Amino acid sequence: MAIAVAAIHSRAKLCSSLIAESAQPFIEEQTISGIEAAKQYFRNPINMEKLTKYHGNKARWVLAAWTETWLDPEFRGWNLVCHLKEVQCPVLAIHGDNDEYGSVAFPNFIAGSVSGHSLAVIMDGVAHVPHHEDPRKVMEIVIAVP
Fold first, then answer.
1. Which of 39, 41, 76, 118 is the most buried (most CB within 10 A)?
2. Complete DSSP assignment for 16-73
């Protein structure tokens, strides 16, 4: 999300729309506890192999970069507030109600903060990766948005 918002911010005329899935526009306690749990989870070599599938020999580096950045107390004030209001293209914010890294406040905040048309969709019974957990429903949501 942060990369997409930054790209839109610098090249607004090139973007026709933005779909934000499980995006984190700020940090909540749920974000911290979810990342701490993930860090613990990936200490198990069997679980770490799952990351290796996607990140190859950089899996440990990717995990450390993510967890150490987001868990750093100096990072707690990070947010996309000032950038979101610059987003003028239509925005669809999709979020699972069981997302381990953030509450449904995230998509609602995103939809309420952008300058263009926006819609927040909360998926029931879905965690952090809606397109993997219920790809058909995500596609239905995307197609249904005008």
1. 118
2. S-EEEES--SB--HHHHHHHHHHHHHTTSHHHHHHHHHHHGGGHHHHHHHHHHHHH-G
SS3 state at 84: helix
Judge whether 31 lies within some domain: no
* CA angle (130 as vertex; 144, 15 as ends), nearest 5: 55
Report the SS3 class of residue 114. Answer: coil
Whether residue 117 sits in one domain with residue 86:
yes
* pLDDT tens for the 146 residues of the chain, in order: 677 877 776 776 778 899 999 999 999 999 999 999 999 999 999 999 999 999 999 999 999 999 999 999 999 999 998 889 889 999 999 999 999 999 999 999 999 999 999 999 999 999 999 999 999 999 999 999 87
Residue 100, H or E segment: none
Residue 32: inside a domain, yes or no?
A: no
